[in-house]
Design a protein that fits this description.
heterodimer, A: abc type-2 transporter like fold, four-stranded mixed sheet, 4 strands, elongated, B: alpha/beta, Rossmann fold, Alpha-Beta Plaits, 2 domains, 14 strands, about 35% helix
Chain lengths: ~375, ~300
C-alpha cells in the first residue's frame, strides 16, 4: 500500500467534488431537510374524530363528553341522532370513534346505579384502535372512581384505600416528548441515507465514464483507490452530522445528554460499515441505476428493521436477524444511548464492536469483488 | 532493434465464459518494434492488450512484458508499461495539468522530475498553453495527445495502444503516426491494435488476429511475399459471370470483391491465357493485370485457406 497513491486519489476526489457544486450543495442540504421532515414523525394517536349519540343530554352526559375531550385522544366533531348516522360516519371514515350514551344515563348516574356507555372504534388501523380503546377504558375506571368517592363524601365517609396502586416514572424522557425519542433515531437514519448516497457512485461512476480502465491499468491497488475515495466522503459525512446536530438542537430543541465527542468518535465505526456497504454496492453494480436499485435493498430494511421507527422486539425473529446485518440497527442504539440516556462506551461497546465487524466484512467483500472485476 | 524480447506470450488463452477471446497465442515482440495487431472487430485485439498490461488474467498460458509475468507479477507489469485504452479514460473535470500530475503520482514519478517531464511532454505534443484548461473542453485530437502524454509520464519502455486511430480523421491520423515514429526512434516498444490494414503497412511487424487465433505474424514485406501465386486485378462485364467462371478454375484459389474491382488469387503465371479464357466465354475484359499483393490480399487468402 502506497500512501502517496492513496493521497493522490484523495486529492483527485476533492478536486472533482469541489467542481461539482450542484452535487455538493445537494449533499450538504438534503440531510438537513430530511431531518426536519422526518423529525415530525409521530406514533401518537391524538385528536381522533369522534361522533357522539346522546339522545337525552344531561349534566352527567355533558361531563362525560368533556372528560373524553380532555384526554386529547378524542375530538368530538359530530353529534348524531340515530345509530344509522353513526354508522355512516364510521363507514366514510369521517369519524373513527363512535360514542353511544344511553337515554337514562343522567338519572342512573345520579341514583348511583350502574350505567353503560358504548364506545365503537374503527379498528382498520389496529394499533391506534388499541390505544383509543385503552384510553376509553381507563377513562371509564377513573369516572367510576370519582363517582364513588363523591357519593361516599356526600355520606361523610372516606374512600377505602386502593388494594393495589401502580406508580409510574418515565425515566430519561420524563416529559414523554416524542421528539426526544424520534429525532435521535431520525438522525441515525439520515446518516444512513447520506453515507449510502455518497458511496453509491464511487466505483460504478468511474466504470460508466470509462475512466476506470485507465485507472486500474496503473499500479494503483484496490485498497488505495477505495480508501482514497472514502476519506473525503468521511469528511463530508462528518460535516453532515454537524449540521444535523445543530438542527436537532436549534429546531427541535433536542440536545445530547451524553458526550458529543463520544458520538463523533463512535460515528466513525458506523461510517466504516455503512460507507463500506455503499462501496460494495458500487463495486458489484454495472451501472449507477443498478446501484441505486440495490441501495433500496439497504435503505428500506434500514427504516423498517433497525428499530428506528418500530421496536425491533415486535418483529418476527427471522426479520430481527436480518436487521442484524444493517449498520443502522447498531447506530440507532448508539445515538439514542448517547442522546437520551447519556450513557458511554461501557454500555455501547457491543454496538461498536458489531459495527466494526460488519465494516470489516463488507470492506473485505468489496475488495475481493473489486479484484475479481478486473478480470 | 536490440534483439531483446519486450513482450512474449506462450499458449495464451483467455475465455469469457464459453467464449474464447484469445486462443493459444504465441507471440514475441522484440524491443524497439512497432508491432501492429490487426483484425476485424471481435478478433480479440483489445483482450490481448488488456492481458498484456495486467488488466485481465490469462485463463491459460502466460505472457511476459520486459521479463515480468502478467500472471505472477501484474503489478510489476503495470508499473513498466504505458496503456492507452480505446475509450478516452482521463478525467474531464480535471485540468490537463491535473491529469498529468495524477498519473505521475500514481506511477511514483519523482516529485522533482514531474514538472520537467510534464513540460517537455506538453511541448512535444503541442499542448503548452492549455495545461490549465478542463480536459473535457479539449478537442478530440488534443484529448488523444493528452492520453498519450499521461501514458508516457512515467517513461515506460513499452507502450500499449488500443485502436488509437479508430474514428480519427486522416490528417490527425498521419500526425499521430509521426508521433509514434518519434517514440519508436527513442527506443520505445510500441504495440498497437487497428482494424485498418493500411496502417499495418507501417509496422515493423504485423500480427493477424482472427477469432482469437494468430493467423499470421511477420513483417509486412515478408507477409506480402508469403502469398503463394499472385494477385490479378480484374474489371470485367458481366462481373458476376466472370467471377463464377474464374472460381471454377483449379488454378484460381479465390476471387474477392474490392471496391469496383475484383482481385483474383491466381496460382498460374499465364495472365494472357486467363484473359483469352474469359473472352472465349463471352466476357468483356476491361482490365486484367497482375498487381503486387497487399496485406489485405494476404489476410483474406490466409483466412480462406484456414476455412474461416
Amino acid at each position: 500500500m502506497s500512501v502517496r497513491r492513496l493521497w493522490t486519489v484523495v486529492r483527485k476526489e476533492v478536486a472533482q467534488l469541489r467542481r461539482d457544486r450542484r452535487t455538493l450543495a445537494t449533499m450538504l442540504t438534503l440531510p438537513v431537510v430530511q431531518l426536519i421532515l422526518y423529525g415530525y414523525l409521530n406514533n401518537e394517536v391524538l385528536h381522533q374524530p369522534t361522533a357522539v349519540w346522546d339522545p337525552v343530554p344531561s349534566a352527567e352526559s355533558r361531563a362525560l363528553v368533556a372528560a373524553l375531550e380532555n384526554t386529547r385522544y378524542f375530538a368530538v366533531r359530530y353529534r348524531v341522532r340515530n345509530l344509522r348516522e353513526l354508522e355512516r360516519l364510521l363507514d366514510s371514515a369521517h369519524a373513527r370513534v363512535g360514542v353511544v350514551v344511553p337515554p337514562d344515563y343522567g338519572p342512573r348516574v345520579r341514583a348511583g346505579r350502574p350505567a353503560t356507555i358504548l364506545v365503537v372504534v374503527d379498528a382498520s388501523d389496529a394499533t391506534s384502535a388499541r390505544v383509543v380503546l385503552q384510553v376509553a377504558q381507563g377513562l371509564g375506571v377513573r369516572l367510576s372512581q370519582d363517582l364513588q368517592v363523591r357519593s361516599l363524601a356526600r355520606r361523610g365517609q372516606r374512600p377505602p384505600p386502593q388494594p393495589v396502586e401502580v406508580r409510574t416514572r418515565a425515566w430519561y424522557n420524563p416529559d414523554l416528548r416524542t421528539q426526544v425519542f424520534i429525532v435521535p433515531g431520525v438522525l441515525g437514519a439520515v446518516m444512513q441515507f447520506v453515507t449510502t448516497f455518497l458511496t453509491l457512485g464511487t466505483i460504478v461512476r468511474e466504470r460508466e465514464l470509462g475512466t476506470f480502465e485507465q485507472l486500474v491499468a496503473t499500479p494503483l491497488r484496490p485498497v488505495e483507490l477505495m480508501l482514497g475515495k472514502l476519506v473525503p466522503l468521511v469528511g463530508l459525512a462528518y460535516l453532515n452530522l454537524t449540521f444535523i446536530l445543530l438542527v436537532a438542537w436549534g429546531w427541535f430543541g433536542v440536545a445530547a445528554k451524553g458526550s458529543l465527542l463520544l458520538l463523533y468518535v463512535l460515528t466513525f465505526a458506523f461510517f466504516f460499515s455503512s460507507l463500506g456497504l455503499g462501496t460494495l454496492i458500487s463495486t458489484v453494480s454495472r451501472t449507477f441505476v443498478q446501484a441505486a436499485q440495490l441501495a433500496q435493498l439497504i435503505l428500506l430494511p434500514s427504516i423498517l428493521l433497525s428499530g428506528f421507527l418500530f421496536p425491533r422486539e415486535s418483529l418476527p425473529p427471522a426479520l430481527q436477524y436480518v436487521g442484524l446485518a444493517i449498520p443502522l440497527t447498531y447506530y440507532v442504539t448508539v445515538v439514542r444511548g448517547i442522546f437520551i440516556k447519556g450513557v458511554g462506551l461501557e454500555v455501547l461497546w457491543p454496538q461498536v464492536a458489531a459495527l466494526l465487524a460488519l465494516g470489516i466484512v463488507v470492506f473485505g467483500a468489496a475488495i475481493v469483488r473489486f479484484q475479481k472485476k478486473l478480470d | 532493434m536490440t534483439g531483446q524480447v519486450a513482450v512474449r506470450s506462450s499458449g495464451l488463452v483467455r475465455r469469457f465464459g464459453p467464449r474464447v477471446a484469445l486462443d493459444h497465442l504465441d507471440l514475441e515482440v522484440a524491443s524497439g518494434e512497432i508491432f501492429v495487431v490487426v483484425g476485424p472487430d471481435g478478433a480479440g485485439k483489445s483482450t490481448l492488450l488488456r492481458v498484456l498490461c495486467g488488466l485481465l488474467e490469462p485463463t491459460e498460458g502466460d505472457a511476459w512484458v520486459l521479463g515480468r509475468s502478467v500472471r505472477q507479477e501484474p503489478e510489476a507489469v503495470r508499473e513498466r508499461v504505458g496503456y492507452v485504452p480505446q475509450q478516452f479514460g482521463l478525467y474531464g473535470d480535471l485540468t490537463v495539468w491535473e491529469n498529468l500530475r495524477l498519473y505521475a503520482d500514481l506511477y511514483h514519478v519523482p516529485r522533482g522530475e514531474f514538472e520537467i517531464r510534464a513540460r517537455s511532454l506538453l511541448h512535444e505534443f503541442r499542448l503548452l498553453g492549455v495545461e490549465g484548461r478542463m480536459t473535457a473542453a479539449l478537442s478530440g485530437g488534443m484529448k488523444q495527445k493528452l492520453a498519450l502524454a499521461c501514458a508516457l509520464v512515467h517513461q515506460p519502455q513499452v507502450l500499449l495502444l488500443d485502436e488509437p486511430t479508430t474514428g480519427v480523421d486522416p490528417v490527425s491520423r498521419r500526425q499521430f503516426w509521426r508521433t509514434l515514429y518519434e517514440l519508436h526512434r527513442r527506443g520505445i516498444t510500441l504495440v498497437l491494435t487497428t482494424p485498418y490494414l493500411d496502417e499495418a503497412e507501417r509496422a515493423s511487424r504485423v500480427a493477424f488476429l482472427h477469432r482469437g487465433r494468430l493467423v499470421a505474424c511477420d513483417d509486412p514485406r515478408a507477409l506480402r511475399g508469403s502469398l503463394p501465386g499472385g494477385v490479378v486485378e480484374l474489371v470485367a462485364e458481366p462481373r458476376a459471370r466472370a467471377q463464377s467462371l474464374l472460381r471454377a478454375r483449379p488454378d484460381v484459389r479465390g476471387v474477392y470483391v474490392f471496391g469496383d474491382r475484383d482481385r483474383v488469387w491466381y496460382m498460374g503465371s499465364d495472365v494472357g491465357g486467363l484473359r483469352r479464357f474469359l473472352e472465349r466465354q463471352g466476357v468483356r475484359v476491361d482490365i486484367l493485370r497482375p498487381v503486387p499483393p497487399s496485406l489485405e490480399d494476404v489476410f483474406v487468402a490466409r483466412l480462406s485457406s484456414e476455412g474461416a
